[in-house]
Specification:
289 residues; single chain; 12 helices
């Protein structure tokens, strides 16, 4: 598929036709599959649209476009995308497999929060990779946050998490974001390590959010890779990265319906300012056109 392909572009010519016919439905199905909605959701949405078209006795493609927008928006809005960050400090664990853009997401999230007047400290609890700590420090600085580093490589990640929350409490910092490992080079299990971090933090304060970062370009495979986090890490929200254009936009609905976890943030570019809160209405407008 060409990089310039988008769902809105594919739909534009389809909805410019004079009438809804068999070709319209076939083209809509192809476009939704190409946009990574997946076959089950594509079939379900089209069945819903066919019923609406029959109920309102319309053959106007403009009506179909409006119905498509309303259907997608309604389905996306079934879960609340609001970030829960009212506690002080609000502690956010960021989890996900290595390579999904976890570190850059933390930098962008920091910038997003600082831009809304919040103070942030970042904890580098992925202590098994020295490069991860340095990369996180760079992004935290770009985002305008302080960082708590491990005192030596391989330091207990839970102790770094403890020090991060302790600093936030001591200095009156609004939000503590804790980076975690995507895999470990030790014999201990990754989920055991995350569980230990949770227990240590919860002795100090409640955890406000556990955000799972997913890469839109890996689609359904990415969800399969992240199943262990979903099952064991107490994930409260999803962050979808690399959602450039709407070529993979259907993944947003697919992953939310598959996991039952709301999407709370979306990244639609490489820049420090390219992470935003998720608003179903705005997202669907961009997706469908």
């Amino acid at each position: 598929m060409a990089a310039s392909w988008s769902l809105s572009g594919a739909l534009k010519s389809m909805f410019a036709r004079d009438t809804i016919d068999a070709e319209t439905w076939s083209d809509l199905e192809d476009a939704m599959i190409s946009a990574d909605f997946g076959p089950d959701i594509t079939e379900s949405v089209i069945d819903e649209l066919r019923a609406s078209v029959a109920r309102f006795k319309t053959d106007d493609p403009t009506d179909l476009k409006r119905m498509l927008r309303e259907t997608l928006e309604e389905r996306l809005a079934r879960l609340d995308p609001t970030l829960t960050l009212s506690a002080r400090p609000a502690v956010v664990l960021v989890v996900g497999v290595n390579g999904v853009g976890k570190t850059t997401t933390i930098g962008k999230f920091t910038k997003f929060l600082v831009g809304h007047g919040r103070t942030v400290v970042v904890g580098a609890a992925d202590t098994f990779r020295a490069a991860a700590v340095e990369q996180l420090a760079t992004w935290a600085e770009r985002g305008g946050a302080e960082i708590v580093r491990p005192q030596q490589q391989g330091q207990d990640p839970a102790s770094v998490a403890f020090q991060t929350v302790e600093r936030a409490q001591r200095e009156g910092i609004d939000i503590a974001i804790i980076d975690t490992a995507g895999r470990l080079q030790t014999k201990s299990g990754l989920m055991d390590e995350l569980g230990k971090i949770r227990r240590v933090v919860e002795k100090q304060t409640e955890i406000a959010e556990v955000l799972l970062v997913l890469d839109a370009t890996t689609g359904q495979n990415g969800v399969a890779q992240a199943e262990a986090f979903i099952q064991h890490a107490g994930v409260t929200g999803l962050v979808i990265t690399k959602l450039d254009g709407s070529a993979k936009g259907g993944f947003v609905l697919a992953v939310q319906e598959r996991t039952g976890i709301p999407i709370k943030l979306v990244g639609q570019g490489e820049g420090i300012n390219d992470l935003t809160g998720f608003t179903p209405h705005v997202f669907v407008q961009g997706l469908v056109g």
